[in-house]
Amino acid sequence: MAGTGRLKSFSGGIHPPSDWKSLAKDKEITQAPLPETAYVLTAQNIGAPSKPIVAKRDKVQKGQRIAEASAFISAHVHAPVSGEVKEITFRPHPVTGARTPTITIKRGDDDEWAPGLNEPTDIDALSPEDIRNLVKEAGVVGLGGAAFPTHVKLSPPPGKTVDTVILNGAECEPYLTCDYRQMLERTQEIIDGLRIIMKCLGVKDAYVGIEANKMDACEKISSVIGDDPNIKLEVLEVKYPQGAEHQLIKAVTGREFKPTQLPLEAGCVVHNISTTLAIYEAVKWKRPLIQRVVTVTGDGVENPGNFVTRVGTPIESLLSLTGIKEDANKLIFGGPMMGIAQQSVIGANTVKGTGGVLVMRGAETWESHACIRCGKCVEACPYGLNPSYLSIFCEAENFQGAMEYNLMECKECGCCTYVCTSKRPIVHLIKMAKFDLGRQRAREQAKQKAKETAKQTVASK
């Protein structure tokens, strides 16, 4: 097997218990029941939200576009089920909490694809531009959590050279196993998807990075790669956040770039397993991104599992498949490190970026204390920052001080909070500081725009 020598890694990071994955790692992927009602949010990507193009009482078919991208960094949204649009209203977004326009679809009796979809293509006959267009039309976004529009990643700007594609099979977030199961069960399609990405970008060299706690997945991937000299498997140290783009690129290629820069600056493009499969589905079969594998797990779940789930599925129906223990008291979208806690099961539904639903028992609240300058967070930070000082500045709303300590370079991975002796909510404080700074910038931009408008009005008189 290629790449089984010294394990590749990076500086910093932490080692959460790896046995948390055992709850769902051996559960084969199964199809979740179709939702009776799908709640499809129009903000399912980083960047501009999409704009609804359907109205109340419209009939829609599975895969039909129901909201259009509103900018270059935006993504189309499609109907996950066939049925009727019952209403377009506002619902809280499970990640941001913001009230978001939501297209509510009552499912009908059939589950047939809209015309022109689910048809095979000849990949060899496609140009790079054809591939980008198919991915864009399918509304594919990054499914590792960031939800960055994938067609943008496949469109390097002029002057930027990409020579390496990295397939991210690390899945370093504790508990989650959706990518792992797909590496075991859909191996050939994953590598076919990787080759599609390589063709689109005109790249000859590619790597597949997988943590050493998934050696069966390494063996499967290696067997499909075969003797292809352009694709190499790299076995990575089991460490969080091994799957983050900066850390993965450093581990696999040795290249470094600033936290505020994109992987393009290192000549790399990174896609995770689920995204690569979505690219394959979009290009080979003209299937929009209307479903994904979701891991439902945690010690608060009776029967954890991995489920192919339509976008917009209410969490209540997913949890009815697994059962919830009576003393479960915390629900998280995503993993425990970077996931977002939900206020309630009621009203929460999946979006494209939902890779996991984590239900916990015995979740406790605790009192945080003043920083004791132990330095654990500094040692753990994979970006070389000083989370201790950042948390102190952010808590005091000293945003200038926080900026001087490179606030915007923090990726909010949670390593600092995990190791903090004083139980300080470091990531929370950083998130709030960034949010407040964003509001300040928005106000300043609005004032500047108002001044410019006033000047133009005076000049035109």
Explain the overall architecture.
This protein is an alpha/beta fold. Among the domains are: 18-28 and 117-285, Rossmann fold, CATH 3.40.50.11540; 370-461, no CATH class. It is built from 13 helices and 17 strands. It has helices at residues 128-137, 150-153, 178-185, 187-201, 215-225, 245-253, 273-285, 315-322, 376-380, 387-395, 399-404, 415-419, 426-460; strands at 29-31, 37-41, 51-52, 59-60, 65-68, 77-78, 83-92, 99-107, 164-169, 205-211, 231-236, 268-272, 291-297, 305-310, 328-333, 340-341, 356-361. Strands 1-14-13-17-15-16 form a 6-stranded mixed beta sheet. It has a 4-stranded antiparallel beta sheet with strand order 2-8-7-4, with no helix packed on it. A 4-stranded parallel beta sheet has the order 11-10-9-12, with helices on both faces.
Q: What general outline do the C-alpha atoms trace?
A: globular
- By CATH, the superfamily of the domain at 18-28 and 117-285 comes out as NADH-ubiquinone oxidoreductase 51kDa subunit
Mean pLDDT: 94
CATH topology of the domain at 18-28 and 117-285: Rossmann fold
Helix content: 25-40%
Order of helices and strands: EEEEEEEEHHEHHEHEHEHEEHEEEHHHHH
Low-pLDDT residue intervals, each spanning 5 or more residues: none
Oligomerization state? single chain
Which secondary structure elements does this structure contain, and how are they paired or packed?
Blueprint: E1 29-31, E2 37-41, E3 51-52, E4 59-60, E5 65-68, E6 77-78, E7 83-92, E8 99-107, H1 128-137, H2 150-153, E9 164-169, H3 178-185, H4 187-201, E10 205-211, H5 215-225, E11 231-236, H6 245-253, E12 268-272, H7 273-285, E13 291-297, E14 305-310, H8 315-322, E15 328-333, E16 340-341, E17 356-361, H9 376-380, H10 387-395, H11 399-404, H12 415-419, H13 426-460
Parallel strand pairs: 1-14, 9-10, 9-12, 10-11, 13-17
Antiparallel strand pairs: 2-8, 3-5, 4-7, 5-6, 7-8, 13-14, 15-16, 15-17
Helix pairs in contact: 1-4, 1-7, 3-5, 4-7, 10-13
